[in-house]
Amino acid sequence: MSQGALQPALHLAASDGAAQARPSLAIEHLTYRYWLERESREFLAFADVSMTVAEGEFVCVVGPSGCGKTTLLNVLAGLLPYEEGEVRINGVRINGPGVSRATVFQQASLLPWRTVMGNVRYGMEMQRRFDRATMRRRADEFIKLVGLAGFEKRYPSELSGGMQQRVNLARALATDPKVLLMDEPFAALDAQTREFMQSELLKIWSSANKLVVFITHQIDEALFLADRVVVMGTRPGRIKRVFRVPFARPRSLSLKRTPEFLELADEIWSLIEEEAGRINVIRPGEEGVGG
């Protein structure tokens, strides 16, 4: 077993004690079920998931399709109500969408009739907690942070896919969330753009200092971005093992070609293969997008 691996566990906590000391996000014994109308039965999406994540920590979640990764993220976002277990941010239970969280989805979902500036301001407008001058200042700040200064008056149709996701990220960050939730935000991009965006995200994250929970099917993406990688099993979804990523920051893309990186990626792949074979999961070095 590599040095980055921890023993299988349902409880995810920072091995250096940071998450226990200041657990910005705490999930306790979270279980999610939903009703399958066509089959007239209840389906258990995931069971007894517990984790704590520290302020400023970057955690990636990987696992086979159907293990409940995206369902978990939607519960954290407050988009799906839960009845068993508890989710707290800075000690406050979440029971629905709120200003403490912002979500970046796979598709940028920008408003086509709004410019870059207008789209970045949109999230703040919906929250109604920023005055006009503050919205303008914050929009300018995060447009610059994501590298789109000079594109403020462009419309989504005039932007590449990678640039659209930068707008999406700027819109999320401008609302000043405590937790940034990301659901495969680069999956729809080509391989070259995806790797470029991974590097850019790390630069943005280091400046913004946000807690990030990032869902991906790409094992190399998870290892490149994260402080810890959570591997989920299936039937029902559960935390199978947690890996602390041992590579120092800042990281360059050349890290992905090192023997240590590839060894850890193969170990994670073996766990996923053990759970569900190769179903919609991309092995390190292979191209494609998992579902």
Major sheet strand order? 7-8-9-4-10-11
Amount of helix:
25-40%
Helix run count: 8
Q: H/E element string?
A: EHEEEHEEEHHHEHEHEEH
CATH superfamily of the largest domain: P-loop containing nucleotide triphosphate hydrolases
Which regions are unreliable across 5 or more consecutive residues at pLDDT < 50? 5-21, 278-283, 285-291
Architecture of the largest domain, according to CATH? 3-Layer(aba) Sandwich
Derived from helix and strand composition plus strand pairing, the structural class reads: alpha/beta
Mean pLDDT: 87
Q: Strand fraction band?
A: 15-25%
CATH topology of the largest domain: Rossmann fold
Word description of this protein:
The protein is an alpha/beta fold. It folds into two domains: 1-100 and 177-291, P-loop containing nucleotide triphosphate hydrolases (Rossmann fold, 3-Layer(aba) Sandwich); 110-174, no CATH class. Helices cover 33% and strands 23% of the residues. The chain has eight helices and eleven strands. The strands form two sheets. The chain has a six-stranded mixed beta sheet with strand order 7-8-9-4-10-11, sandwiched between helices. Strands 1-3-2-5-6 form a five-stranded mixed beta sheet. α6 links the parallel β8 and β9. The longest helix has 18 residues, at 191-208. Residues 5-21, 278-283 and 285-291 have low confidence and may be disordered.
